[in-house]
Amino acid sequence: MGCAISGLAESAGLAEKIVRDHDAGGRGGGQHPNQDQIDMIKESWKVIRDDIAKVGIIVFVSVMSFIEKSVARLDQLERLEALAVELGKSHYHYSAPPKYYDYVGAEFISAVQPILKDRWTAELEEAWKTLFQYVTCLMKQGYKEADRQNHAAVSPKERADKRNTAL
Ligand code: HEM
């Protein structure tokens, strides 16, 4: 069945109850949301969706401004490297982990492709991909460095103290 019954509900024996209610045509758990709930979901989804769109735009604008700086540094790669490593460090503090960085590059490429129309070639795509791979690799280094610094900042004694308070 397509309906996702959580493992928790299942272990509590709720799954059987839901199935029984369903078979009995009951209006309890396991049924589709009622009309009031549907209206509420629809209303709230508008807000959620708009906000998610805003977040996307903010990230995209940030990426654009970073690309602007990167392109300006393409002839001074050591400056670009320093910038990208710093960016990785700041993303550690934003809790934005490296596993998502590649998606940003792919998104960026598919967004800019239509702008260049015929001028977009396989070679150009390869060039942009290379730039993103280069930058994201450096960001990952910066992220790891910030992670190491963060852990080094917590002394063994502090770690022991933390363990004690957790108990
Ligand atoms: C190639 C990948 C990415 C690039 C080039 C990039 C670039 C940037 C830049 C330039 C900023 C502006 C602030 C700063 O310089 O530190 C920024 C902020 C930020 N980015 Fe990214 N980003 C990338 C991936 C991501 C991903 C995958 C996430 C989320 C999972 C993310 C979340 C954030 C957040 C939360 C901020 C702070 C926004 C704020 O509160 O001002 N970024 N990013």
Describe the protein:
The chain has a domain at about 75-165: Globin-like, CATH 1.10.490.10. Helix content is about 75%, strand content about 0%. It has helices at about 5-10, 15-25, 35-70, 75-95, 100-115, 120-155, 155-165. Bound molecules: protoporphyrin IX containing FE (HEM). The site of protoporphyrin IX containing FE has 15 residues, from helix 3, helix 4 and helix 5.
Q: How would you summarize what this structure contains?
A:
The chain is mostly helical. The chain is 77% helix and 0% strand.
What labels would you give this structure?
mainly alpha, 167 residues, Globin-like, binds protoporphyrin IX containing FE, flat
Q: Could you tell me the number of beta strands?
A: 0
What is the class of the domain at 73-166 in the CATH system? Mainly Alpha
Low-confidence runs? 1-29
Rounded to an integer in angstroms, the radius of gyration calculated over CA atoms is: 25 Å
What spatial form do the alpha-carbon principal axes imply?
flat
The small molecules bound here are: protoporphyrin IX containing FE
Mean residue pLDDT? 76
| Beta-strand content estimate | under 5%
Number of helices: 7
Distance between the termini: 43 Å
CATH topology of the domain at 73-166: Globin-like
Largest sheet: none
